[in-house]
Amino acid sequence: MIYETRVYRCMPGRLPALLKRFETITLKLWDKHGIRQAGFFTTLVGESNQDLTYLLAWESLAEREKKWTAFTTDPEWIAARAKTEEDGQIVLTIENQLLVPTSFSAVK
């Protein structure tokens, strides 16, 4: 397995809009494209309380490329994203890493 960590830093005050978008739009589209989430987290203590961190689980880099590309180019996603940003930009920056579990990891 490959795990992808994604951290979205929101524009000030826009984290609730991002959470709503994931809950009501994004997750349904991920289901459509077979994208599996492994967890979502907001920051309790850390650099910014305007961050959303989540993990995705992939069988391979090829699976990630195929499914992520299909999602990001889906006309339904493009339209929904634009609609949710009519009141302004939501995400300031996105950081991501692709991780491979160690032999002693509880998560494989």
Describe the 3D structure.
By secondary structure, the chain is of the alpha+beta class. It has one domain: Alpha-Beta Plaits (2-Layer Sandwich), CATH 3.30.70. The chain contains three helices and four strands, in the order E-H-E-E-H-H-E. It has a four-stranded antiparallel β-sheet with strand order 2-3-1-4. The radius of gyration is 15 Å and the shape is globular. The model has no long low-confidence stretch (mean pLDDT 97). InterPro entries: Dimeric_a/b-barrel, NIPSNAP. This is NIPSNAP protein.
Question: Helix and strand layout, with pairings?
Answer:
Blueprint: E1 2-10, H1 15-33, E2 36-42, E3 51-58, H2 61-72, H3 75-84, E4 91-99
Antiparallel strand pairs: 1-3, 1-4, 2-3
Helix pairs in contact: 1-3
- Summing up helix and strand content along with how strands pair, one would put the structural category as alpha+beta
Major β-sheet strand ordering:
2-3-1-4
Q: The biggest beta sheet, please? A: 4 strands, antiparallel
Q: What best-fitting shape do the alpha-carbon axes yield?
A: globular
CATH class identity: Alpha Beta
Terminal CA distance = 6 Å
Nearest-integer average pLDDT: 97
CATH domain fold name:
Alpha-Beta Plaits
Q: Quaternary state, please?
A: single chain
Beta-strand proportion: 25-35%
How large is the radius of gyration?
A: 15 Å
